[in-house]
Amino acid sequence: MRKKIIAGNWKMNKTLEEGMGLVSEVSNMLKDEYTGSAEVVIIPPFTHINSISKLIAENPRLKSGAQNCSNHKSGAYTGEVSADMLKSCGATYVIIGHSERRQYFNEHNDWLAKKVDAVLLAGLNPIYCCGETLEEREINTHFNVLHTQIREGLFHLSASDMKKVVIAYEPVWAIGTGKTASTEQAQEIHAFIRSLIAEKYDADIAQSITIQYGGSVKADNAAELFRSPDIDGALVGGAALQSRSFVDIVKAMA
Ligand code: 13P
Q1: Closest ligand 1 atom number to CA of residue 100
Q2: Which atom in ligand 1 lies closest to the alpha carbon of residue 238?
Q3: How do the domains of the chain map onto residue ranges?
Q4: pLDDT level of residue 179 (50, 70, 90 thresholds)
Q5: 98 an active-site residue?
Q6: Which CATH architecture has domain 5-251?
Q7: pLDDT, tens only, 75-119
Q8: Which helix (H) or strand (E) holds 211?
Q9: CA 59 to CA 31: how far, in whole Å?
Q10: What SS3 state is found at 153?
Q11: Catalytic: which of 39, 48, 98, 132?
């Protein structure tokens, strides 16, 4: 069975103190209220990863991750953070290619492919994001856009490395807008991504890869999204900043 993963991407929000408080609440609520199978990943800013990883160490359901990392292993790259550093702080996952990185920091697929390699080399798991803009959907180029993002960012990987990747489909028009993709729209794209993987690798690998949906996931739309056969969890932004709304999304996953 595929792993179900609900991840909370805090983006650039929460001081360390606020973040520690939020994680303690989430951890306690999950212990009291959730018996399902999902893994829950907290993805705070870099500065909080070490403290949060220590705080969640006693709750096996919880893991931590980072929102980005350098494509270099080490060296004179002022301001950058390497995958090895993230591992040494307790991270398990690293988001690569979030649309905000693509849009505001000009990160392109060839660059992202190198970041994916750096994450895997450090023994961590990439959460590789893909997704079309509203304009790309309106002119019906979204399948091509997604195919290119997946092919150029991931398809250089060996089959054994590919199995370590989590994919997050986040349509740009649904991020932070309150507009979720309909369950049918999301399912269609998830099945499409899985078919690309089956074509490039094989059906077993395609069936084993966790594909999350992201974009205005809330407690009241999560259950319906999670009922779709190819939606294996969520990458949550805004609703991950409060314990009640985040835990309610987790609870929507059986
Ligand atoms: P929202 O849930 O706030 O739309 O953000 C989604 C996202 O970008 C998660 O990475």
Answers
A1: 8
A2: 3
A3: 5-251
A4: confident
A5: yes
A6: Alpha-Beta Barrel (3.20)
A7: 999 999 999 999 999 999 999 999 999 999 999 999 999 999 999
A8: strand 211-214
A9: 8
A10: helix
A11: 98
